Structure formats: C-alpha cells, structure tokens
Amino acid sequence: MSQRDMSGGNTHDTAEPSASTDEPDAEEYSRRGFMETAGAMGAAGATAGLAGCVGGDDTEGTGEGDFLWWTMRGYIQSEEQALRDTAAEFENWSDEEVNLTTEVITWDQVFESWASAIQGQNTPNVSEMANEHAVDYGSRGVVRPNTELFNEYDDWYDTPSYWGNYDGEVWGFPWFVEVRNFYANTDILEDAGHDSIPETWEELVDTATDVESETDKTGFVSAGSQSTGTGQVLYGAAVQAGGEFYGYEDDQWTVELDSPTSLFAHLWMASMQEEWEIGPGGWAGMDGTDAEQLYREGEAAFMINSGDAANNMIDEGDAVADSTSLELIPEGPMGTNTAFMGGSCLSAFESDFTQHNVEDGLSMSFIEYMTSPDTMEGYYPDATPNFLPVREAQEELPPFTENPTDIPDEWIQNRLDQASDSARYGITGPQRNAPFLGDLEGTTDAYSVAISGILGANHDPKEALVDLANDVRSTISESDAVDYELEQSDEQPSLDDAPDELQDWIDGSDGTPQIWDPYE
C-alpha cells in the first residue's frame, strides 16, 4: 500500500492560548434574498452602528479623503490586528489623501449590514465578500467590475481564474483561498497497527475500519448535519469521483445534482455510517464544530474539516496537535486529491452607494495594494494557514518560504500544495459564475440537504437527489439572470451509468471496499 511514512511525527512548540473565538466557516455566506432585504429596510437602519467607525490608526473619518472598507477577519485577534495595521499603511502608499477606516463585521451580521447600507447609500468603498455575491451585486449595479486589474496577472490558480467571471467581466478580486483539510491522529493509527497515513480512499476506509475494530475510537468524522461543512465535504467527494453539481453548455446552465456520479458521491459518504460503520454515533446531527471537538478530544482517527481546527489546536495548546498530521485529501477514484475551496474576494462598491465619495480608481488602488505580495507579507504570517494563495507568485510569501509561526512546516506546505488542487461548487464545472449561485448555496445549506436527510432521516437517496436538483432548477429558472427555463426531471439516477472508474466501489471488486447500495 502506497501510504506516507509517519516516522518522526510532528513536533512543535505550542503557542499560548489566544484571545480569538472560533471562526464560522468562511463559506457560510449565502443568505436567501439578501438583496431583497435591502428594499425592505429604511435608510435609518443603514447608519445604525456604522457612523464614526474607528480605523486602524484609531482615528475617525474627517471628511475629505475618507475611505471605508469592511472585512470579516475579526475572529482571530492577531490576524485582525495585522490586517488593520497593514491597511492603515495604505494612507502612506497612496498618491492621494486618504483617511482609512477598517470596520470588522462578522459573517453572521454582514448580510443585513450590506442590505441596509445599500438602501441608505452608506456602503463601504471596498468590502470582503464571496465572488458569488460580487457577481450578484454587480449584475444589479451595486459593485464595480475589476476586470482590468484582474487581467494584469496571468498566474492565477484554476478555480480563482474564473471564480468571478460573469457577463464578460470579472467581479470581485480573489483575495485568498482556504481549503478543507485531512487530519490524521498518528497515535490512534499506531494503536490500530498502522504506521503510515492513508493516501487513497481505499486506504482511508481500510485503516479507519481497523481503528474501529482495534481501538475504542471513531474511524472517521466530518460534518454530517444539514450544514455548510457537510456540503463541502460531499462536493469534494463528488469531484474526486469525476462529477460536478453544475454544467454549462450551449449558453445554458445544467444541473447535475441528480446524476449517477452525484448519487455515487452521496452513497460513498453515507457508507461511512451505513456500510463500513466508521463514522461517529449521531453523525447526522454534527456540524463542523462538533466534528472538530470530537477530533480535538482525541476520539477520532481521521477528520476532514476547515483550517480553523488546526489553528485552534495550536493556539490553545491541545495535546492532540503533537500527534496530528495534516495531509492532502486522500486520492479518489479519478486519481486526484482535490479538496473543496473556500475563500474571499475584495469588491468595490459603486460610488452611488458609498458612504464616502472617492474616485473609483482609489477603490481599485486599495484592492491592488492589499493583494500585492509586498503588502501581504504584512499579514500573511498572522493569517496562516487559513489564507492561502490565489496565484503562483504568492507562493513566495512567508510563511511558505520561511515559517515564523508555531504551526508545523509540513502542515503549511501540505495546505499550500492543496490550494492549487481545489474546487468550488457552482464554479469549477461550468468555469464561470452566476448571480443565482449565492442564493442557491444558502437555500440548500451548501447542497447538504440530500445527504443530511439520507444520514439522519432515512430519505431515499435517489428521491432526495431528484428533489434537490429540481429545487435548484426552479431557482435558476426564476432568476432574472436567465431567459430560459430548466425542465424538471422525474428520472432517477442509476449506478449502472456511473463512470467505469467507480464500478469497483459499486461492486466491491479487486479488494475495493463496497459502498452502501440500498437498491441491491
């Protein structure tokens, strides 16, 4: 078996516990109808809590040259301060007079804040957001395209290179990506008789099965509830099995959520509980935070989760950090290690909506400043390892070339390697964006509706997928962004039509663990 050698393990000095709180996943950004909310709010609500914002230099806006930007980076104290300090230097970097204010808005508040600020023409000049929302706002004339700035670079990673593409423009400037990570507890593996880390799906299932039989620990954990993290893990599995949730052909979107490959991915994930019995009890009620807690308590051998768990283990001095190996996602049937890609972009609001009236070029200048490698050196070490590059030139930044953090070198290197092999639902398959994608992410809890029902409520997998796919088709058809209607489908997918590379898993051939098939 081609597994990685674990000899030596990870050693590092643990940091003192930080004052940070657990950050909700950066992808939990989609909220149904957040644009419609703007129309329902009065201008008075727009100014609530936003007047007199304090900037990175602890000064309030003075009038001429005032510039406001919003970031959601307020969950890790050192990261927030590094961003504030770096952003404040824009005042000296710019050729124009600038009085910069950094305002931190949490993800659970920013949707209402955006909506009310738009209604009151009181938005920041630049805001962190997802490109799905940059495209939606852009199609409604609220944010500006940044195509010219984007085209100055030609070394983008694949998914960021088309993350903001819509209607011939690029909306939102990719700022960073973050990826789902594969965590392995080497102490538990040794107790189960293994001295190497699984590199493939087959090895993962076999090793986790041994953990269940030889120890009192859980073999594998991830989010399993109807939640964002669950859908992200599921989508990663679908891509590794050669599938996508969307396609685009003949100038129309297609929905692939009820395809044979999607069925396989759902059954593969459900097999952790239904066939191989390597998932935790109550898995269908666990979100990413619950999964993290189980792993950090030393009760699970393997976990797929966001990077926050790694940061938290180091910051809080968890004993499990010393036995944790952070690796690439194990290779799937198509021979790839692809992981789900999260991340953020920076978007400039149109001056008709901004609180401070500045030249449009100043907003673009700020985005250019914050995303240049020289500037990023000021905050990347404190944002490690959640902030990962969006293009090749950024691979030369500390901490990738030199590591000033308490995080093990191999953790950082493996996450850097994973960054360029990552995919995003709604984006990677069609290789474009659309205004309705943010809404769909929210209404489906990141496409976790079907799998959570299968795991927790015994929903028929085929029926659950057809229902989910038809809901998505309806949403697209009702969108102002399309002038066609996607037909509803009553045809259920069949594993017989799945790609050849998946058949060993379906049949249990050649020593491959057989997936759960409730239709046999």
From TrEMBL:
<dbReference type="Pfam" id="PF13416">
    <property type="entry name" value="SBP_bac_8"/>
</dbReference>
<feature type="region of interest" description="Disordered">
    <location>
        <begin position="1"/>
        <end position="29"/>
    </location>
</feature>
<feature type="compositionally biased region" description="Polar residues">
    <location>
        <begin position="1"/>
        <end position="21"/>
    </location>
</feature>
<feature type="region of interest" description="Disordered">
    <location>
        <begin position="484"/>
        <end position="520"/>
    </location>
</feature>
<protein>
    <submittedName>
        <fullName>Extracellular solute-binding protein family 1</fullName>
    </submittedName>
</protein>
<dbReference type="InterPro" id="IPR006059">
    <property type="entry name" value="SBP"/>
</dbReference>
<feature type="compositionally biased region" description="Acidic residues">
    <location>
        <begin position="484"/>
        <end position="504"/>
    </location>
</feature>
<dbReference type="InterPro" id="IPR050490">
    <property type="entry name" value="Bact_solute-bd_prot1"/>
</dbReference>
